[in-house]
Amino acid sequence: FQAAAQLEHPPRAHVVLALNKLDQLSRPQREQLAAAHPDAIFLSAATGEGLDALVAAVTAALPVSPYLYPDDDISTQPVRFFCAEFVRETALEQLGDELPHALACEIEEFREGSSPLYIRAVLHVERDSQKRIVIGANGQQIKKLGRSAREKIERFVGEPVYLDLWVKVLPNWRKNRSAVLRLGYGEPNTRG
Question: Which domain holds residue 98?
Answer without folding.
Answer: 79-182
